[in-house]
Each structure stands twice: as C-alpha cells, then as structure tokens.
Amino acid sequence: MITIKNSVLTAGTASLLSLGSLALTSPSYGFSLNLNSWYTIGDVNPISSTQATLNSGSFYTVPTGGGADSLEDFLSLTPGSLDPVTSIFGATQGSATKQTFTDIKVGDVLRFDYSFLTNDADNAFVTINNSVIALTASTPFTYSFTSAGTYNVGIGVVDVDDTIGASKLIVSNAKLDAVPEPITILGSLTALGFGVGMRRRFSRKNSASGSAWDIQ
C-alpha cells in the first residue's frame, strides 16, 4: 500500500512540477490575426485570412485630407496626419485596413510581415490610435504596447504628391503575442506548493507507521 501511495504521489508531484516549469518558462503566447475579418477602405484586394494586398494609384482608392469617407476619417485621424513631412503636396489618395483590439495588456506585441513595392514617392504606414508609423523597408513590423486598453490599429498605403504611380503593400502573418495572465503563474505556483506539501505530509505518515508495516 505504501509503495502504491508513494508512486502515485511521486507521479502527481512530477506532473505539478512540469506544469509550474511550463508556466514560468513560457513568457508569452501568440495567436494569428484573421486579416479577412478586418475592415477595409479603398483598393484592398486580394485578401485572405493570412494576407492582404493594399493598393494605391488605382481607380478604387479613396481621397485623403479629412471629411466623410476619407482615409483619415476611416482611421479616426486628424486631417493631414498621413502627409509625410518631406512631401510637397502631401498624401492624396490610398487604401487601408483596420481593426480594434479591446483587451490589450502591457507587453503585448503586434507583429506582421510586409513587402512595400513602389517606384514612386508613395508611403506605407501603420496607425496605432492617433500615431502614424511609416513602413520604410520590407522587414517584419513589431510594436510593443506600453499601456493597457483599447487600441485602433490601421495599416495603409497612400499616393504622395500626385495621384499616379501604382504602389502595393502586401501584409501577411499578422499576429498578436500576448503576455500570460498573472493568475496563470500564481495558480501554477499554488498547485506546485500543494503538491510539495502533500508529499511531505505523506512522508511523515509513512515514517511514523514504518515499524508496523515492517513487522508484517
């Protein structure tokens, strides 16, 4: 009987140790973002769950500058926010996609791959609430959130200084890496402490009754 109890207890403690180790050594988890569920304006085509292509310089793009149905209105930006500082006439027209995230935690990270194809002075960008971040190279984009809350995230491309010269922004593999909930680590540590405590308790019981079992 003692052998069975010890075996079960050892296995249970080992499992709890593994659980606690997993929680402590896995600092984040991630999930893919379905780009096909994002809202779009202008020429965003083709689009799938893992990839979206945003175009400028085409018939289906929308104007900038503010006002109803403009890119700034769609992205909840003030007029002129999409004008690059080095441009003469500013942004003229473009396309964008957006999504709202309602439960962002400190340390969450937005990531996606992108390729910006242009032969013009056009501009690709990301908007995080009221901030506009230029995409200047074909490298993965990462953004770490420094405060918790709700965030409006937009991705777009605009013609700059003219309305000709097609450009293309290809976005893929969008992902949100989220920090683990504190309760997950706390719960694992509680379970781990419980397992160690039970092992000590049974060890004391076995030591106290060892002579009686030895006689049998």
What does this structure look like?
The protein is an alpha+beta fold and 216 residues long. It has a domain of 150 residues: Sandwich (Jelly Rolls). 28% of the residues lie in helices and 38% in strands. The protein has 4 helices and 12 strands; from the N terminus they run αβββββαβββββββαα. The strands form 2 sheets. Strands 1, 3, 4, 7, 10 and 12 form a 6-stranded antiparallel sheet that branches. Strands 2, 5, 6, 8, 9 and 11 form a 6-stranded antiparallel sheet that branches. β8 and β9 form a beta hairpin. The longest helix has 27 residues. It is globular, with a radius of gyration of 28 Å. The N terminus and C terminus are likely disordered.
Feature tags:
216 residues, alpha+beta, Jelly Rolls, six-stranded antiparallel sheet, 4 helices, 12 strands, 28% helix, 38% strand, disordered N terminus, disordered C terminus, Cyano_PEP, Ice-binding_C, PEP-CTERM sorting domain-containing protein
